[in-house]
Amino acid sequence: MEQIQHKYVDAGGLKLHVAEIGTGPVVVFLHGFPEIWYSWRYQMTAVANAGFRAIAPDSRGYGLSEQPLEPEKSTFKDLVDDLLTILDSFNISKVFLVAKDFGVRPAYHFALLYPERVIGVVSLGLPFMLSGAQSFLRETLPDGFYVYRFAEPGRAETDFGRLDVKTVVRNIYILFSGSEIPIAREDQEIMDLVDPSTPLPYWFSEEDLANYARLYEKSGFRTPLQVPYRARLEGYDGVEELKVKVPAFVIMGEKDYVLKFPGLAYFLNELMRDYVPDVETTYLPEGSHFVQEQFPDKVNQLIITFLNKHT
Q1: Cα of 311 vs its chain's centroid, Å
Q2: Nearest-CA neighbor of 121 among 135, 134, 132, 109?
Q3: 303, 98 in Cβ contact below 8 A?
Q4: Which of these, 215, 168, 210, 218, lies nearest to 189 by C-alpha position?
Q5: How many domains does the chain have?
Q6: Element (H or E) spanning 304, and its range?
Q7: What InterPro entries does the database record attribute to this sequence (predicted)?
């Protein structure tokens, strides 16, 4: 961890934080929610030791990156543009993209727009997904589904505001590491789903929580609630053909609650190749939504094998 360097890139006047370690072919790690660059700590060191250069930005409005002036107008396309800015600022021509959760969306969007600059894509916690209205069908999940609750302006802010930031992050990690979709009753809020006595997952320490909480205390949740939740119906702006032309690898935990999203498992196993022809999928037994932190050695080996195969 102490060998990881921290830099800043100017993206249209917005300072984006970038963590970096190693030399060689470049691997860019894109985090999800409630994550930051730190969620890739194990993978960054591992790929650097394997002869690669690891770069992990904090998305705009997350971690050590600055807040946009109007967080409520942030889009997934902003993250694609930010990635392009980061690569250009470092004079990097081609990269591997490794993405988790909502980071999967801009990773594939970037690969669709700039296939000549992407060697391959690894996604964890989510596969390639259709965008816009096709991504989540309102009638398939109840109103208490956490994505719908977080997408409702003001509701999550009120829910989170009852607690300190550290407790909010703690609760979300506990919820998202489970095997059931977080769904609240009509008389509940999402934070009410976690019993205060519930321990953190065994693989997530109090020190880890403190590192996350410290940065979320800085950033707040305005941008994180906008992207991914309130921007979730955004399309793949600028893409003419919805077909990924680079190799892809999907890593899923067998107990990831995401696999219970209606239709997702069928899409992943039966339909995804229509959009990502050169894709392989692997499932980690007992794996949760946070496989890269839960089973870092296994995930590191899978990622490095993919990188070496396509270098």
Answers
A1: 24
A2: 109
A3: yes
A4: 168
A5: 1
A6: helix 296-310
A7: AB_hydrolase_1 (IPR000073), AB_hydrolase_fold (IPR029058), Epox_hydrolase-like (IPR000639)
**Domain extent at residue 240:** 5-310
Cα gap 77→231, rounded to integer Å: 10
In this structure, what token pair is assigned to residue 153? Answer: 């302006």
Concatenated DSSP letters of 242-268: ----S-EEEEEETT-GGGGSTTHHHII
SS3 145: strand
Among residues 38, 212, 229, 275, which one is catalytic? 229
Catalytic residue, candidates 81, 101, 159, 256: 101
How many whole angstroms separate alpha carbon 242 and alpha carbon 223? 27
CATH code for position 57: 3.40.50.1820
Give the whole-angstrom CA distance, residue 271 versus residue 167. Answer: 39
For residue 133, give the DSSP letter. Answer: G
Q: Residue 192, by phi and psi: left (phi above 0), alpha (psi -120 to 50) or beta?
A: alpha
CA separation for the pair 311, 96 (Å, rounded):
9
pTM of the complete model: 0.97
Calculate the CA dihedral of residues 120, 124, 125, 128 and round it to 10 degrees.
Answer: 0
Phi and psi based region of residue 300 (left: phi greater than 0; alpha: psi -120 to 50; beta: remaining): alpha
- Each residue's pLDDT, cut to its tens digit, for the chain (311 residues) gives 679 999 999 999 999 999 999 999 999 999 999 999 999 999 999 999 999 999 999 999 999 999 999 999 999 999 999 999 999 999 999 999 999 999 999 999 999 999 999 999 999 999 999 886 556 555 588 999 999 999 999 999 999 999 999 999 999 999 999 999 999 999 999 999 999 999 999 999 999 999 999 999 999 999 999 999 999 989 999 999 999 999 999 999 999 999 999 889 889 999 999 999 999 999 999 999 999 999 999 999 999 999 999 99
Among this protein's residues, is 289 annotated catalytic? yes
- Please tell me the total number of residues recorded for the chain in this structure: 311
CA dist., res. 269 & res. 250, Å (int): 11
Q: Which two tokens stand for residue 293?
A: 């932190």
Can 101 be counted among the known catalytic residues?
Answer: yes
